[in-house]
Each structure stands twice: as C-alpha cells, then as structure tokens.
Amino acid sequence: MPETLTDVAQAISLAQRRAFLQLPLEERRRQLAAQAERMVEYYEFEAERTEREAWQGRDIVQS
After folding, report:
1. pTM summary value
2. Contact 8, 19 (CB under 8 A)
3. DSSP for 13-31?
4. What is each CA distance from 55 to 4, 33, 50, 58, 61, in whole angstroms?
C-alpha cells in the first residue's frame, strides 16, 4: 500500500486489502507499526483528546 491514509474515515478497497495480505509478514508488521504510531499522534493531539475525554468521561484506566 504505497499511499498514506491520513483521513481516519477513508476506507481502502478490497484489492488494496488483498495486496496487503500478500506482503511478507515482516512488511505487514512494519506497516501496521507505522500506522499505529500515526494513530497515537492522532488520538493524543490536544483538541482530539479533549473532545474524546468530554464524551468519554475522562480516562478509562484509573491510575
């Protein structure tokens, strides 16, 4: 999957999903790890976090 999905709501096609599954396991893991890092940035962005906490009722895990 050469293109980067920046819009969280953007869906990928079935052909793209199948192409991903044809990649070697290590490449799939690398791509998923990179995607996870981007999502951390998305969810920890202050405006997004504040909005999420407002409807979620703060953190789920109490420390």
Report:
1. 0.53
2. no
3. PHHHHHHHHHS-HHHHHHH
4. 29, 28, 9, 8, 15
What one-letter code names the amino acid at 45?
F
pLDDT at residue 28, rounded to an integer: 96
Is residue 39 helix, strand or coil?
Answer: helix
Which residue has 């998305």 as its token pair?
42
pLDDT means per 10 residues, the chain with 63 residues, are 50 91 97 91 73 70 60
CB 48 within 8 A of CB 42: yes
SS3 6: coil
Residue indicated by tokens 């793209």:
16
